[in-house]
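Let us work through a complete example step by step.
Step 1: write down the sequence.
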Amino acid sequence: MTTRIPVYLHAEDPISRAGLESALRFQREIDLVDIEAAESAVVAIVAVDSLDEAALRVMRGLHARGCTRSVVVANALSDTDLLGLNLGGLSGREIDVLRLAADGFDTGEIALKLSYSKRTVTNILHDVTSRFHLTNRTHAVAYAIREGLI
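Step 2: predict the structure and record it as tokens.
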């Protein structure tokens, strides 16, 4: 018996959704799941016109639900869109630092727990706040929680 892979499909418009569903429905290896079962999906297919903030928000939401692999089908992608896709999430180091900051640890305590220097922790927090245009570490933690990044 073939193991079926749970796949969640998100499309901005009903015509794209119908076309993709039609193409995928009869694949024996694929089990299309709805949004309620998205946390069980191994892969999400995200069909969008462009990779804008709304599309990134959908991908972050799916990631927060446990679907960590996405295939993006876009009508047009610019270099900026690709950069946004690569920088749309957080690295493992950034996640570790923000989780500890969310738990109330200060820079020195975070550095000690992760075996980093204080300067490294400060640089990680600065990179996150700069990349997402945030004002401080509290804003960074709130943003990461709100967007489902941590």
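Step 3: interpret the result. The mean pLDDT is 85.
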